[in-house]
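Project outcomes to date are best conveyed with an example. Our students and postdoctoral researchers have been running inverse folding experiments weekly, and each run begins with a structure described purely in tokens. The record below, which covers 151 residues, was selected by the lab manager from last quarter's runs and is presented without edits.
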């Protein structure tokens, strides 16, 4: 077989073979806000999230000062419409007190099997005990219907 034909067959196979790619992105809510907690990254597992399964958001961050406690508020949006909200004690998601420096925040959620597939946005706000905003971030992620779609 001609090498050019083999090359084209390879290109077509690669182009039409579904692959698992990271679908999540994140950013701070404001690029001008001087947050007391700086988020370094957001890891979503699995990525994309599988409906009916568990999703874990691991958020390594840096605290500028000691944080004795506070709250984490999570709002989830689908097609721009808020579909979920929860507020929880910060110390449930990480060990308190948080000393200045590196720490990680873990947010695990079980997704219902009827969750629509598609693009979602999660907005997370962390406040201290006085209600002062420590950080805010937006995570864009995908929900898929099943693992087989990723392979």
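After processing, the design step wrote out the following sequence:
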């Amino acid at each position: 077989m001609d090498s050019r034909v083999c090359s084209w067959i390879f290109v077509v196979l690669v182009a039409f073979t579904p692959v698992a790619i990271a679908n999540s992105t994140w950013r701070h809510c404001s690029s001008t806000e001087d947050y007391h907690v700086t988020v370094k990254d957001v890891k979503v597992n699995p990525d994309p999230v599988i409906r009916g399964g568990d999703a874990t958001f691991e958020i390594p961050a840096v605290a500028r000062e000691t944080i004795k406690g506070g709250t984490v508020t999570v709002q989830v949006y689908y097609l721009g419409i808020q579909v979920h909200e929860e507020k929880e004690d910060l110390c449930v998601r990480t060990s308190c007190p948080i000393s200045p420096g590196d720490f990680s925040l873990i947010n695990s959620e079980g997704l219902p099997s009827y969750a629509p597939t598609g693009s979602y946005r999660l907005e997370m706000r962390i406040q201290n005990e006085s209600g002062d905003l420590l950080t805010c971030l937006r995570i864009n992620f995908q929900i898929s219907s099943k693992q087989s779609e990723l392979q």
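DSSP finds two helices and ten strands in the chain. The longest strand covers residues 133-144. The training component of this project remains on track.
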